[in-house]
Amino acid sequence: xxxxxxxxxxxxxxxxxxxxxxxxxxxxxxxxxxxxxxxxxxxxxxxxxxxxxxxxxxxxxxxxxxxxxxxxxxxxxxxxxxxxxxxxxxxxxxxxxxxxxxxxxxxxxxxxxxxxxxxxxxxxxxxxxxxxxxxxxxxxxxxxxxxxxxxxxxxxxxxxxxxxxxxxxxxxxxxxxxxxxxxxxxxxxxxxxxxxxxxxxxxxxxxxxxxxxxxxxxxxxxxxxxxxxxxxxxxxxxxxxxxxxxxxxxxxxxxxxxxxxxxxxxxxxxxxxxxxxxxxxxxxxxxxxxxxxxxxxxxxxxxxxxxxxxxxxxxxxxxxxxxxxxxxxxxxxxxxxxxxxxxxxxxxxxxxxxxxxxxxxxxxxxxxxxxxxxxxxxxxxxxxxxxxxxxxxxxxxxxxxxxxxxxxxxxxxxxxxxxxxxxxxxxxxxxxxxxxx
Length: 437
Known about the structure:
The chain is elongated, with a radius of gyration of 40 Å. α9 crosses α10 and α14 runs antiparallel to α15. By secondary structure, the protein is an all-alpha fold. It has 15 helices and 4 strands. It has a two-stranded antiparallel sheet with strand order 1-2. It has a two-stranded antiparallel sheet with strand order 3-4. Among the domains are: 88 residues; 106 residues, no CATH class; 67 residues.
């Protein structure tokens, strides 16, 4: 009896293994990239289904041969026979699932292109979710500066001396509130003062030379103090002035970037407005494209005025124009608000505005090209010709003994440092003047 039971189990194991192979063939048939006709797919699926049914019918005969201890059973009220309804229900459930799978195979067949599109959409959805979860936290330095100087910074924000700087700060994307940025200015100036004091004390007692030994002690401290005391004031003052005017420089840089994107964005807005779409959706579509990152930030402010503060489009445009870093974009906002109020044609409005902005863009590119040519001429004159002439003059003055006692190594070092400094200044200037597109 035991041997028959073991043989039945082995036979059942073989049948189940064969059914797994049939199901794997059905799965590979669905997900295969081979281009075949629908009739051939159906024929193969039906053959596999028939083979699977034959194997499945053998299972019931084998199960009848196996005697198992039934812990749960039901007794007929008439004959008292024991029944096990689980096997029948499993058969019916398996048959229904198989029939549903075959129906889906016949009705749906996802192509490779559709799979790629779905993959890209899922990837974009995950990236959008990550961006929404990302929270921008204040920098540790900003938090420390606010804790130390917040009480001093708040009265300074309301003063007239800082009003222009605060206005420029609000028009940029630096992410500072006025009191926090003033605190950063004061903190940085204090650190620059301490650094200037350390440099002053070092130079008060030591000299720096270009020949070994490079550091030598100072003999006359009083004279040395009169020569270098300006370091105590220059370094903190330069730090304060730079941070004070940095929002203005950032605003001008942002204005240049916006002006570079605006002509092409208005062309797209003209095409969108030609479809008679609701004006608010024009900004929403431009934001969703992501092709204009600088304009996206400005247009998002308009949408926030509508969605967060509950203003209408005309009021939102006028409020955005007051805090816009670009004069051209502010003019576009005001003109668009007037056009909407008067009931003008938006398509025609954006078309004419894009033509004028594109003309200004071309003229600006031409001026930039001519300025670059001028910079090249100046660069050749100053960086190539001038150092050679100056070095010859210094050599001649040294040979003639007219009072300048500089060694050839010192003169060479001066020329190298001078050329490097001029190159750095020219690169910064060209980077600031170079259009972004």
